[in-house]
Design goal:
Rossmann fold, 6-stranded parallel β-sheet, globular, 45% helix
């Protein structure tokens, strides 16, 4: 099977969930015997020197890139107010990308063109014009839902109105895109249900984020009891909102109740205000080179998300490593987990404090959560099993 994967950025280095999910998809399809080509926007914000990619990537994947700026700018955001288009999407509508895509579709006969998310949807007309390939969208998130949730949790009147406007425009365009696809590969059953509610009638296969089976066999490090950590890219607004909520409403109570605890905050593009949180019980690491190594010796992963959509691959990675996860319900969306069995869920500051207290004080509970979390990943969230289902799905549609 010959697949062209369209990405809104080069998915490397593996420092955030989006990059990890796209990269794992590429690697897994290639390992399964598919011929994989990738056309990606090499953005200014996430610019990648192509020769820095792993050797196996150059050997197995044909990569094409188009350099472009897709950043949000005050000028662009202001003038978009007088438009009816979604600013979230039009930033990724790049003439040079259309041109390169048309060239590839003319030179190669692809079986499937897979859009890695809604941001590639404006290229569907170019695909239809130059190819008869199956057009699939891998839904990393229901994008408009993120902005609706951000708007709902924002106190500022003017900011709330602006976020509501973004959400409304994005929802209209996202629903329109659903009618232009041959199939959708949502990342969670929740997202699948939302797509169906919005009128999508084409075939769908829920294709969750997963991890390499080798992660389950990673040699465990000695875990330092009472260590809490948050690891996420801080250039995504829901993550910033989550950490701010935790630091203001939860951490002050935890550190007083458990003075022996230590909090580690890590992730690329850490805001300056967060870097200043360094202190006796807090270490702000910023971007880490090896996420697995960073997580290994720490006990409790924190996922205090209040908005967002899709699925947090970092939770799956944490489970594979046997970490105790304390998350909000939104943070754990898309994962077939059960609070008290393989994760601890909490949706208020008080509940979050209580669950952290349980994790710190009950070693028997932690051992059970750790064991059950690893078993859940082994059963449902390995890349090999996920990709085999996706290839079968595409094969049946192509017949």
């Amino acid at each position: 099977m010959k697949i062209l994967q369209l990405c809104n950025r080069v998915p490397y280095p593996l420092t955030d969930g989006g990059a990890i999910a796209m990269f794992a998809m590429t690697q897994s399809l290639s390992d399964a015997g598919c011929e994989v080509h990738m056309l990606a926007i090499n953005t200014q914000k996430h610019f990648v020197e192509i020769d820095k990619l792993p050797d196996w990537f150059h050997a197995k994947v044909k990569l094409y890139t188009v350099d472009a700026a897709t950043d949000v700018t005050p000028h662009g955001a202001f003038f978009n107010l007088f438009s009816t288009r979604s600013y979230n999407l039009i930033r990724f509508d790049i003439p040079a990308f259309h041109k390169k895509l048309a060239q590839l579709l003319t030179e190669h006969k692809y079986d499937v063109v897979q859009l890695e998310g809604l941001f590639l949807s404006m290229y569907i007309p170019t695909i239809r014009k130059h190819s008869t390939a199956l057009v699939s969208m891998r839904g990393h998130n229901v994008e408009y839902l993120i902005w609706e949730r951000l708007a709902a949790s924002t106190a500022s009147f003017f900011k709330k109105k602006y976020l509501q406007l973004l959400a409304k425009r994005l929802k209209r365009e996202e629903i329109s895109v659903l009618q232009q696809l041959d199939c959708i590969v949502p990342i969670s059953t929740i997202d699948e249900q939302i797509y169906r509610q919005q009128g999508a009638k084409m075939p769908m296969l829920v294709c969750t984020a997963g991890v390499d089976e080798n992660l389950l066999e990673a040699k465990p490090a000695e875990v330092k009891k009472g260590t809490l950590f948050h690891l996420a890219a801080m250039n995504w607004q829901p993550n910033v909102e989550a950490v701010n909520w935790f630091m203001q409403s939860i951490w002050p109570k935890v550190k007083v109740s458990f003075p022996q605890t230590h909090l580690f905050l890590a992730g690329k593009d850490m805001p300056d205000a967060m870097m200043k949180q360094n202190g006796k019980q807090v270490t702000v690491c910023g971007q880490v080179n090896d996420a697995v190594q960073f997580m290994q010796d720490k006990q409790i992963m924190l996922v205090p998300l209040l908005s967002g959509s899709g699925m947090r691959i970092k939770i799956i990675e944490g489970m594979a490593l046997g970490k105790v996860i304390v998350s909000t319900s939104i943070g754990a969306e898309g994962i077939d987990c059960t609070s008290g069995k393989n994760i601890l869920l909490a949706d208020s500051a008080e509940e979050f404090c209580n669950q952290i207290a349980l994790a710190i004080s009950d070693s028997e509970l932690c051992n059970r959560l750790s064991k059950n979390a690893k078993a859940l990943v082994q059963q449902k969230y390995t890349n090999r099993s996920i990709i085999s289902k996706l290839i079968s799905f595409y094969s049946n549609l192509l017949k």
